[in-house]
């Protein structure tokens, strides 16, 4: 019964805003049950209040008794300060959901009261339009009812995948960071389109529509990407020439390396924070 619950975001940056937008659009819970907090930027909170009709308050004014679900949405470097401030304020009923890249549920559980229900999720900024691909992994103490409740909440921002936490790094490399790869691709398409005589808006729109069409073909048909690619490629035609240039210029390798590098970075963040734990 999410309608009766209140969620508070600790952190009011890009990811929090994208999730707030999706949740409010979905109508899954009243906007007045969504609270955004940050440490001091009141203008940012007012902006979110005006845009989405939610509440916006500074972190130190948040009354945990009015909150059911706490979404951690600060940068990984700020996790310890956030957990320190939380641990004396929360009760066993609070559910803690983190969107932080590379911070494990074990790492969070260490900083919170014993037995606290913790989940680690990985959304992306397409949450803004309810088109995120979001991963969910539960911590040691989380109940199946809570996992399902959070999965339901996240369905407000797009498709949700329950995964093993070990898969979170590669999920982050593909889906958390992924929108940026497509925007980078679009930056190039827009630029070359303009260089070759299109106006910027037309180049932008045809590039985006082409990505959208290809994405829908992948989601709504059973053909593999290889089969779909072959259907576009006439022997000796324009696509064959384009693909040949992609191969010659390392297009496939570049895509694989982008995903692997992002996943590795997620692993590195985890390792860095686990190490701090051992040292303490
Ligand atoms: N931006 C993205 O596409 C995605 C980001 N993430 C994760 O989301 C988290 C936030 O990322 P962004 O929104 O891009 O960062 P951001 O820098 O835009 O926002 C971070 C916010 O946290 C606030 N903050 C820091 N400590 C706080 C505390 N103790 N209590 C309340 N607020 C606090 C800051 O004032 C700021 O408003 C990161 O950990 C990142 O790994 C996950 C998936 C995608
Ligand atoms: O760049 C980052 O670290 C965050 C996590 C996934 C997307 N943005």
Automatic annotation (TrEMBL):
Keyword Amino-acid biosynthesis: yes
InterPro entries assigned: 6-PGluconate_DH-like_C_sf, NAD(P)-bd_dom_sf, P5C_Rdtase_cat_N, P5CR_dimer, Pyrroline-COOH_reductase
Gene Ontology terms, MF aspect: pyrroline-5-carboxylate reductase activity
Top EC group: oxidoreductase
UniProt xrefs under Gene3D superfamilies: NAD(P)-binding Rossmann-like Domain, ProC C-terminal domain-like
GO CC list: cytoplasm
Keyword terms, alphabetized: Amino-acid biosynthesis, Cytoplasm, NADP, Oxidoreductase, Proline biosynthesis
Positions bound to NADP(+): 10-15, 73-76
Pathway the protein contributes to: Amino-acid biosynthesis; L-proline biosynthesis; L-proline from L-glutamate 5-semialdehyde: step 1/1
Recorded catalytic activity of this chain's protein: L-proline + NAD(+) = (S)-1-pyrroline-5-carboxylate + NADH + 2 H(+); L-proline + NADP(+) = (S)-1-pyrroline-5-carboxylate + NADPH + 2 H(+)
Top-rank lineage group of the source organism: Bacteria
Biological process terms in GO annotation: L-proline biosynthetic process
Main location (coarse class): cytoplasm
EC numbers, comma separated: 1.5.1.2
Residues annotated as domain Pyrroline-5-carboxylate reductase dimerisation: 165-268
Subcellular localization: Cytoplasm
Pyrroline-5-carboxylate reductase catalytic N-terminal domain residues: 6-102
Function: Catalyzes the reduction of 1-pyrroline-5-carboxylate (PCA) to L-proline.
UniProt xrefs under HAMAP family: P5C_reductase
Family recorded in the similarity comment: Belongs to the pyrroline-5-carboxylate reductase family.
Name listed for the protein in its UniProt record: Pyrroline-5-carboxylate reductase
Native species: Falsibacillus pallidus
């Amino acid at each position: 019964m999410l309608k009766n619950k209140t969620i508070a975001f600790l952190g009011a940056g890009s990811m929090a805003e994208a999730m707030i937008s999706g949740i409010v659009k979905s109508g899954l819970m009243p906007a007045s049950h969504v609270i955004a907090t940050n440490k001091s930027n009141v203008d940012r909170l007012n902006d979110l209040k005006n845009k989405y009709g939610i509440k916006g308050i500074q972190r130190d004014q948040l009354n945990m008794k009015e909150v059911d679900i706490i979404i951690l949405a600060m940068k990984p470097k700020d996790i310890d300060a956030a957990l320190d401030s939380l641990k004396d304020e929360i009760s066993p009923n609070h559910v803690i959901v983190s969107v932080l890249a590379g911070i494990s549920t074990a790492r969070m559980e260490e900083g919170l009261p014993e037995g606290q229900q913790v989940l680690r999720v990985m959304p992306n900024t397409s949450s803004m339009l309810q088109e995120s691909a979001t991963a969910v992994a539960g911590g040691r103490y989380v109940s199946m009812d809570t996992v399902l409740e959070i999965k339901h909440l996240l369905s407000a921002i797009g498709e949700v995948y329950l995964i093993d936490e070990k898969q979170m790094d590669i999920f982050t490399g593909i889906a958390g960071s992924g929108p940026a790869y497509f925007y980078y691709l679009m930056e190039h398409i827009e630029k070359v389109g303009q260089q070759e005589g299109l106006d910027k808006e037309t180049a932008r729109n045809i590039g985006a529509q082409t990505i959208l069409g290809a994405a829908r073909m992948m989601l709504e048909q059973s053909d593999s990407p290889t089969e779909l690619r072959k259907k576009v490629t006439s022997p000796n035609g324009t696509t064959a020439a384009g693909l040949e240039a992609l191969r010659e210029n390392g297009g496939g390798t570049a895509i694989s390396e982008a995903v692997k590098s992002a996943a590795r970075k997620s692993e590195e963040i985890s390792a860095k924070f686990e190490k701090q734990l051992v040292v303490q």
